[in-house]
Amino acid sequence: MKKLFQSCLIILLSVSIMSGCKTKRVLTKSPLLPLNEKAIIDQLEETLFEFNTLNAKLSVNAETDKENRSFKVNMRMAADSAIWMSITPALGIEAARAMVTSDSLKFIDKLGDKYYLGDYRALDSLFGYEAQYDFLENLLVGNPIQILEGEKYQSVVDELYYVIQTKNPRKVRKAVDLTFKPSLSDSLQIETEIVKKKKLEKAVEKLEEEDLVIKRFYIRADNFRVEKVIIEDLLTERSFRVEYGDFTEVNGHPFAHEIDIYIDTPKESGKFELSYSRVRLNERQSYPFKVPSKYEPLFR
């Protein structure tokens, strides 16, 4: 199988972003009434997209520094427990199958006669990411990702969005411009003049890893669904951005049918465009997964 199918799936399965300051900038006037960060997070909890099982078809376009590929995915989920995927490229022949649970990863490369059966720790070591099941499930259904218990946030109104951002230590605020920016142009790219390199180096030396992660969430005011997430790890110089669009109701609840994912690291970058064509909920379904005896391990 082409390397892209492996790398795309691995990124979608194992990508995990590790776990602000008050601004004086005046943003565009908004008709929204201000809400504090606790009220916003409470509303996010109340509007979670909930299901028992999910069955979906989606198209994926994956762009990396080296190639651009498109493929179809049949996906089945059991909430909080399993994600099953069948991946088919343009020729219509199943190229790969994956099964993800809270503590295991299973992957079959049908074109290369390879397989992987194991837990997340092997991929953590191999790719340098801390894999998490709930991150992937929330990412795919548009629920908030990486809002962790005990984290401190601040809030602001930005045009037609409520925005919450992590409260980072003063040493980070001195190194990075954390001013809220208009939602259409916001990007926390650290490889720009907004970073004061020497102060950042001092902050990296003295602070804990979680203190060096900046998170920003843009929440739609009409339905309190997340429309954009930006996460920046100043220590590893990795950034993650996801944008949700085409909110259409599924069983009476708004569901983002378009998802754009951007991943940047010092060594590589990628963009993944996901487009749902069908979403059905709470149907009985199976999750078939069997490794043929002739297949060989994907990693040795």
Provide the descriptors you would attach to this structure in a database record:
6 helices, 14 strands, 14-stranded mixed β-sheet, outer membrane lipoprotein receptor (LolB), chain A, disordered N terminus
The strand count comes to 14
How far apart, in Å, are the first and last alpha carbons?
A: 17 Å
Alpha-carbon Rg, integer: 20 Å
CATH class category: Mainly Beta
Report low-confidence residues grouped into runs of 5 or more.
Answer: 1-8, 14-29, 187-194
Q: In the CATH scheme, what's the topology name? A: outer membrane lipoprotein receptor (LolB), chain A
The named CATH superfamily = Lipoprotein localisation LolA/LolB/LppX
Helix % is: 10-25%
What is the percentage of strand-forming residues? 35-45%
- Coarse structural class: alpha+beta
Structure annotation, total helices: 6
Q: Just name the CATH architecture.
A: Clam
Question: How would a textbook summarize the main sheet?
Answer: 14 strands, mixed
Give the strand order of the largest sheet, numbering strands 1, 2, ... along the chain.
7-8-9-10-11-12-13-1-2-3-4-5-6-14
Average residue pLDDT:
80
Description:
- The radius of gyration is 20 Å and the shape is globular.
- It contains six helices and 14 strands.
- The two termini are 17 Å apart.
- With 300 residues, the chain is an alpha+beta fold.
